[in-house]
Design goal:
88 residues, mainly alpha, 2 helices
Length: 88
């Protein structure tokens, strides 16, 4: 019985010592997770800003294309008018 109790006490001491640093590890994991989430959030904000800027640029390009198309239509109309006048 003494041997059993001795082995039990030794096993209990080893388990107590082995689990002593578990709290420190979990807090480090939580801090690392928080840092990782903050990094991900800042990257997502950058991507969102870039996407918004790209959308604004695309809208401006679309407006420029519409203005160019209108200018081409005006040129075509003037050429048609000149051709009709030349035929008369």
């Amino acid at each position: 019985m003494k041997k059993f109790l001795t082995l039990f006490v030794i096993a209990a001491l080893f388990s107590a010592v082995a689990c002593g640093d578990a709290k420190k590890d979990s807090s480090n994991v939580e801090e690392e997770a928080k840092v990782m989430m903050d990094d991900m959030n800042s990257e997502m904000e950058e991507v969102t800003e870039t996407a918004v800027d790209s959308t604004d640029g695309a809208m401006e390009s679309g407006e420029m294309m519409e203005e160019g198309a209108e200018a081409v239509e005006v040129s075509v109309d003037s050429v048609k008018t000149e051709a009709v006048d030349a035929v008369k």
